[in-house]
Design goal:
The chain is α/β, with parallel strands linked by helices and 165 residues long. The protein is 45% helix and 21% strand. It is built from 7 helices and 7 strands. The strands form 2 sheets. Strands 5-2-1-6-7 form a 5-stranded parallel β-sheet, sandwiched between helices.
């Protein structure tokens, strides 16, 4: 299967950088497009900026700038070797990610997992888990500590290029 489009959600955390990097490395052999997608969740913290109420549009515009900076820091020179598009939306993360994957006809979603366990996982659940359950395309969940170097990415690419039959 040739991958043409990869949806790579980013929550702008250090942990989500691993998923973005992996998506870009995965895109290179097939010249696939990577859509780095950030969803701003509705919360008091984000709706108030310096004590003033923000509109959704101003919030999304600010996050577009934050996403551009995030991608630059997270991926550096990889951005110039892959077709990358960036989008920001407002809503419930897992719902918007599933909708965006369908809308864009993504071949795969590549996203980091934050590895929450125990009570925190029970209380808030996992965005990755909810995406896996709702997505109509495959979802590759990356644990940030597992992607410690390019050797892991090269191994995955080699396996993809020469699958065991």
């Amino acid at each position: 299967m040739k991958i043409k489009k990869i949806l790579a959600p980013a929550d702008l955390s250090d942990l989500s950088q691993a998923g973005i990097r992996y998506a870009m490395e995965l895109a290179r052999p097939d010249n696939a497009e990577v859509l780095v997608y950030h969803v701003v969740e509705a919360s008091g913290e984000w709706l108030l900026w310096h004590g003033e109420l923000q509109t959704v549009d101003s919030l999304v515009q600010r996050h577009k700038l934050l996403l551009a900076q995030f991608v630059k820091v997270a991926c550096g020179d990889s951005v110039s070797r892959v077709s990358v598009r960036q989008e920001v939306d407002f809503g419930v993360s897992y719902e918007k990610i599933v909708e965006k994957a369908e809308e864009e006809k993504a071949d795969i979603i590549v996203m980091s997992t934050h590895g929450r366990t125990g009570l925190l996982h029970v209380l808030i659940g996992s965005v990755t888990e909810k995406v896996v359950n709702g997505a109509s395309c495959p979802v590759l969940s990356i644990q940030p500590v597992a992607v410690s170097g390019a050797s892991r990415v090269r191994a995955a690419q080699a396996e993809r290029a020469n699958p065991i039959r």
